[in-house]
Amino acid sequence: MIRIGYKRCEYNYYVYINSLDDVFFFTFLLLYVDDILIAAKSMSEVIKLKTLLSREFDMKNLGTDKKILIMEICKDGTTRIIQNQ
């Protein structure tokens, strides 16, 4: 991840962050053993990262995220906010 421009979060080593040209657009990659969660404002950035990772690793898309580790994920389509339940 470091090699492709991501920085490891200093507060949580499972989190990698890539800042796009605009300081308000980030791509977050949460990595824990063999689970990955990608979050970005732009779906094209998510697809771009998934494509890049799939060239290096065997991956499965398990669909919409409902849980990662012990956290349940609640997405509000109206406000576009993701919350931990």
Helix content bin: 10-25%
End-to-end span in angstroms?
29 Å
Mean pLDDT: 80
Strand order of the largest sheet: 1-2-3-4
Protein architecture, described:
It is a single chain. The protein is of the alpha+beta class and 85 residues long. The chain has one domain (7-84). The protein has one helix and seven strands; from the N terminus they run ββββαβββ. A four-stranded antiparallel sheet has the order 1-2-3-4, covered by helices on one side. The protein has a three-stranded antiparallel sheet with strand order 5-6-7, with no helix packed on it. The longest helix has 14 residues, at 43-56. It starts with 6 loop residues before the first strand and ends with a strand. The mean pLDDT is 80.
